Amino acid sequence: MCLAVPMKIVEICDGCAICEIDGVRREASLMMLEEAAVGDHVLIHAGFAIEKIDLVQAEETLRALRDALQTPSDRTA
Amino acid sequence: MISRQPYRDPHIGAALLKKMAERLGDRPQTITLMEVCGTHTMAIYRAGIRALLPPQVRLISGPGCPVCVTPIEDIDRAIALTRRPDTLIATFGDMMRVPGSHSSLQREKATGANVRIVYSPLDALKLAKNHPDKTVIFLGIGFETTAPAVAGSLLEARRQGVKNYQVLCSHKTMPAPMAELASDPDLAIDGFLCPAHVSAIIGAEAFRPLCEDHALPCAVTGFEPLDILQGIDMLLDQVMTEQARIDNQYRRVVKPEGNRRARHILYQVFEPDLAVWRGLGPITNSGLRIREDFAEHDAVRQIPLQTAPAPEPTDCRCGDILKGKTAPQHCPQFGASCTPETPIGACMVSAEGSCAAAYKYDQKGIT
Ligand code: SF4
After folding, report:
1. CA B326 to ligand 1: nearest atom
2. Closest CA in chain A for residue B25
3. Which residues span the domain enclosing A10?
4. Which of A27, A72, B126, B247 is most enclosed, with most CB atoms within 10 A?
5. Is B315 inside any structural domain?
């Protein structure tokens, strides 16, 4: 139930955003965000954008994950 | 760049699993980790993660599905409301098939009750505007992820002067039941995978008392298979080095302080309350009630109803399953008299219930 869908804001009008993912568009309230701009990636839950997705952090998480591939197998905690 | 694909790379998954096995070495004791989010439960079953983990790691599911933890009395109350004249019930689809004592919303709808499925509470508010002759009651269920959206719909109702919109509030809130389970000696939990989108609202720091008072490792974790594996690895690191921290694997969404604005909206409309959890019973400050200031939109205050106490069905083990004490496959009804087509308990009805997830992805079970 707490599932939220990551979407990209393509239009903003009057406290609402039109968001898109894979060609699907949906309207979402921006009431919960301090600021939002066209091009931002947001998580949509029950008709509201509940948080912005931080792409820098996303990249860092992916880098840490890819590091697991390079970690020598004799490394222990 | 919001593709999920990079979080599903099987090579990285294999490397993480190897790292975990090395971390644990030949440690004989079991490490019990609990996830408390229905979406995690589904994702873990879907990816078959339990079977891949080192044998010492036991992953159990907690009360993470808001539909499943809603007491039968609340369902009965919603059903009683459908029988009032000039009333329209709006709900998330998950609630439709949950059995009350004698009926379900779906059955009531089939026999003529005015029940509508909506995707957002704002859609319910729209229904109220379009049906000024009816009282539209939205069934407010969900954790901190969902409660701000319902609060937002009440703020909008006030702003737009919509008088015929009410909420029947059954919202629950998260850290409190985790603390309850953390103190249960039968469970002996060694760490929590913290619910991701609840954390987006309340913040990773909200788990600080749980982590420190119970010396329990916590990891806020996303929903993709690699997110979950990395979260589990963070917990194993803490367990093996005898530390209790709050690791945040899901930094791309969850901030230490969460979403202040969403919390402000939430607490403008709701206040903390004692709540009864199916399976867990009453827990202080684990639920929400509508503030006096919004009484005109509170279905409980506006429509006094007497509903009889509703006992749990005796042959359903949802109670133990919600506490992580039993795996669905150990319920005698599982897959026999209880299937997603003929559910006995809420855990089989809700798509994110442990029984439904186990039925869909793992009928034999390995726990
Ligand atoms: S399998 Fe069915 S009867 Fe058994 S605990 Fe799950 S929901 Fe209840």
Report:
1. 5
2. A76
3. 5-76
4. B247
5. no
